[in-house]
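Hi Y.,

Following your request, here is the sequence exactly as I used it, all 61 residues.
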Amino acid sequence: MRTIGYIPPRPQPIPAPPDPPKVAENAPQETVPVEAPPAADDEKPVEKPAKRPGKGEKQDG
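Below is the corresponding structure, written out as tokens. Let me know if you'd prefer a different format.
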């Protein structure tokens, strides 16, 4: 395999690291107003208990 000489796969991982650090610094202030985590937590407990007992009882019978 002569892919080692290729530089296309290397430039991808390099620009990735600089993105995370910027998001981490701006995340604390922008993560507070985010409505994604709260919505998932509210829907998870409601769908889990309703799906677990419903599927469990149907499969048992």
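The radius of gyration is 22 Å.

Thanks again,
Q.
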